Amino acid sequence: MAYADFVTAMMAFFLLLWILGATTEKQRRGIADYFTPTLVKTKQGSAGSGQGVLGGASLTQVDNYPFKAGQTGTKTLTIPRDATGGPKEGGSRIKRSSRAKEALEKKLASSERLRRLARQVRMVDTTQGVRIDMVDDADFSMFRLGTTILTPQAVELLSAIAQAIGPTGGPLTIRGHTDALPYKQGIAGNNWSLSAGRAEATRQQLIRDAVDGARFKRIEGVADIELLIPADPHDPRNRRISITLAD
């Protein structure tokens, strides 16, 4: 009885060797599937079946996707790094500057006084992030005339801005602008130093309002070379402070 079992096993072994040598890889996968009923049943109900949407010959065969992953059933899924997905997942990351912009709009609408001051604020989307412009006019001024001293209204406005941009953590750039009015004779100073000094005064006020000082990457004074109203260099609206919150 033991000898008969041995001979049967040897025949099966040689038959296996012959099959391995006389068949293609595709045929061998088909034979393996035949002797694995559970696998065949799973295959027939999956995308890897011959009649499925992928038309695969075997559940374990490498896929026919444009970028072959060579999956064997042991690969793990890749989870997007943010909850909204990236460009390949059809979503988009919510930018820091966009969140700050929404927060500032909500803050400026929270009281009648801030709603009046909001008329001096313009928010512009740029390639670097969102730029917040605080613009002077005939009825409002960020600084006392010819100085770097903030007016009480400007301090209140900067406090509201600090509360909006404080939690975002993005890098900040401040740029000071003046109109083209010249200094009076006998007064030491010029619009370059004035615009830079006003940008620095703005930075210091934001720090007093709890914005982290390490976030400030650049402070600039550009005098009157980037006029908001080029047709009238003396227009008070050319005097402004720009705060750019980068993404």
Automatic annotation (TrEMBL):
GO CC annotation: plasma membrane
Region (Disordered): 71-101
One Pfam family here: OmpA
Residue span(s) of domain OmpA-like: 130-247
Main localization (coarse): membrane
Membrane-topology annotation of the record: Single-pass membrane protein
Membrane found in the keyword field: yes
Localization terms from the record: Cell membrane
Keywords from the named record: Cell membrane, Membrane, Transmembrane, Transmembrane helix
InterPro entries linked to this entry: Bact_OuterMem_StrucFunc, MotB-like_N_dom, OmpA-like, OmpA-like_sf
PANTHER family xref list: LIPOPROTEIN YIAD-RELATED, STATOR ELEMENT OF FLAGELLAR MOTOR COMPLEX
Family assignment from sequence similarity: Belongs to the MotB family.
Protein name: OmpA-like domain-containing protein
Native organism: Novosphingobium lindaniclasticum LE124
